[in-house]
Write a structure and sequence with these properties.
The complex is a heterodimer. Chain A has four helices and no strands. By secondary structure, chain A is mainly α. Chain A has one domain: Non-ribosomal Peptide Synthetase Peptidyl Carrier Protein, Chain A. By secondary structure, chain B is mostly helical. Chain B has three domains: 161 residues, no CATH class; 77 residues; 143 residues, no CATH class. Chain B is built from 16 helices and no strands. The chains are: A mainly alpha, B mainly alpha. At the A-B interface, α2 and α3 of A face α12 and α14 of B.
Chain lengths: 84, 407
């Protein structure tokens, strides 16, 4: 389940950041992905919402790019929202 | 009571010792609430201000509770529109004053910290609507909005972060060195506000008053440069000094406030600047204005993401600039900030198109380009801050005079 989710998320990341070589790890942060700025973050959130049929709150969008937040946390949140 | 007064500092020193001797949480909260109320009472000038404050706070609390129970978008939007319109009327913005009825325009209501309360209120109702605020006791809400450490000029804190500390009120420091550091920071704040900032303002005022009398170009250029640097220096020393005092002061009574400054004059561009200068405002604007605006627009017009992004950068920083004051000079300040951030994004997009992502990475790593970018951005910041003083006629006069003498 988690691997499939990560694989789908990887596709989204590759499209949003225009890097077909990008490999996602749970411990990756916004600093590890080139071009992950405020604008790209929203594009990423929109793509994730669309793909997984979930909706992020304003505070969640902000937190997901905050200090210490990782790709793993994004995957957790998507998993949690899909279950709800 | 001024934040730099002896009374305030004595009260802080006394309070920071006494509060942790009180055994129960409710009594510690009560003690802090008493200080919050006392500080507020010393700042509210008249009955009209009290009434405005009570209506403002009650409406925010009721709206947040209503949205927690019934999360309706229409209710949220109606409340936000009403709240912002009331704020604009209370602040009597220059652009709205001509259309205000004379009875309202003649009544000036001054509520200390209202602009900051507005940010906290909007954050709270939006988060309540989106299910991000769990529980909201009136007691916590009032102390969140009226927290004496953030009342006058922030930092803008999230309710959840405040609530986390408020529901414990335990010492944040467990060693003597950390406590000493916090006290030291309070005194550094006092030095910045009382000793370093005032001379900058005094010299600025003296130069600005006599600037139009200058007849020699080189003297005009030197004084113009000093004018350009002195006002940002004054604002930085004053505001960062205030933040040093309130952040360190709050930490001594068990409240962790967010930092507001991170070497702002070393920013490479205006986007970077707003993540280093008045950071809590910059982050609020990003989270509650830029993000929803851009997201809403891109979802509707996905093919125009780039242009919409630039427009949203401009709008967000224009609003942030405009919030700083109600007079026309702040409209120019706001425009310059909007142009600055949108321009920075344009430049980044242009560079990535021309030299590619790898080339852009090298561009960012270049020390020479980095220094040049910092110097250029510093001067742009100084240019925007030149429009901070309310006397727009004098500011224009200074720019015109230096241009006439040198061009």
């Amino acid at each position: 389940m988690r691997d499939r989710l990560r694989h789908e998320m990887e596709e989204i990341f590759r499209n949003v950041f225009g890097d077909q070589q990008l490999v996602l790890r749970d411990d990756m942060t916004a600093n590890d992905v080139e071009g992950w700025d405020s604008l790209a973050h929203i594009n990423l959130m929109i793509a994730v919402e669309k793909r997984f049929g979930v909706r992020f709150a304003t505070a969640e969008i902000s937190r997901l790019k905050g200090d210490g937040q990782t790709v793993g946390r994004l995957l957790d949140l998507v998993e949690q929202k899909k279950r709800a | 009571m001024s934040i730099c007064s002896v009374e305030w500092i004595v009260l802080l020193m006394f309070g920071s010792v006494v509060i942790f001797l009180v055994p129960s949480l409710i009594l510690r909260q009560g003690l802090l609430a008493l200080c919050n109320f006392g500080f507020l009472a010393s700042m509210v000038p008249d009955v009209a201000a009290w009434v405005t404050l009570i209506v403002f706070l009650t409406s925010g609390y009721l709206a947040a509770r209503l949205l927690q129970a019934f999360p309706r978008r229409s209710v949220l939007l109606a409340y936000l529109v009403a709240l912002i319109l009331c704020f604009i009327v209370i602040k009597q913005y220059a652009f709205i004053k001509p259309v205000l009825p004379a009875t309202i325009a003649s009544h000036v209501v001054v509520v200390v910290g209202l602009s900051y309360m507005l940010f906290r209120q909007i954050h709270l109702v939006v988060d309540a609507f989106q299910g991000q605020v769990k529980g909201l006791p009136l007691w916590s809400y009032l102390n969140y909005q009226l927290n004496l450490f953030g009342l006058m000029a922030g930092p803008i804190q999230r309710y959840e972060d405040f609530s986390h500390d408020w529901n414990r009120l335990l010492p944040l420091f467990h060693d003597f060195q950390s406590v000493t550091k916090a006290y030291l920071r309070v005194f550094i704040g006092v030095i910045k506000i009382m000793l370093l900032a005032p001379p900058c303002l005094e010299v600025y005022e003296a130069f600005a008053r006599t600037f139009l009398d200058l007849a020699t170009p080189w003297k005009a250029v030197v004084k113009f440069a000093l004018l350009l640097y002195l006002y940002p220096a004054y604002i930085y020393l004053n505001f960062s000094g205030y933040c040093d005092m309130v952040i360190a002061g709050a930490s001594l009574v068990g409240l962790k406030m967010p930092e507001n400054f991170n070497l702002p004059f070393l920013s490479r561009n205006m986007i970077d600047f707003w993540t280093r200068w008045h950071r809590t405002l910059g982050f609020w604007i990003r989270d509650y204005l830029f993000n929803p605006l851009y997201k809403g627009m891109v979802e509707r017009w996905p093919g125009k993401a780039l242009w919409l992004g630039l427009a949203c950068y401009f709008i967000a920083l224009f609003v942030a600039g405009l919030w700083h004051g109600s007079t026309w000079n702040f409209v120019i300040f706001a425009m310059l900030n909007g142009v600055g951030v949108a321009g920075a994004k344009c430049w980044e997009i242009y560079l990535i198109r021309v030299i590619g992502r790898q080339g852009f990475k090298k561009y960012l790593q270049s020390r020479t380009i980095g220094v040049a970018a910092i110097v250029a951005n510093f001067h742009f910041v100084c240019l925007t801050v030149a429009f901070f003083p309310a006397d727009l006629k004098r500011t224009w006069g200074i720019f015109k005079h230096v241009a006439e003498l040198t061009l």
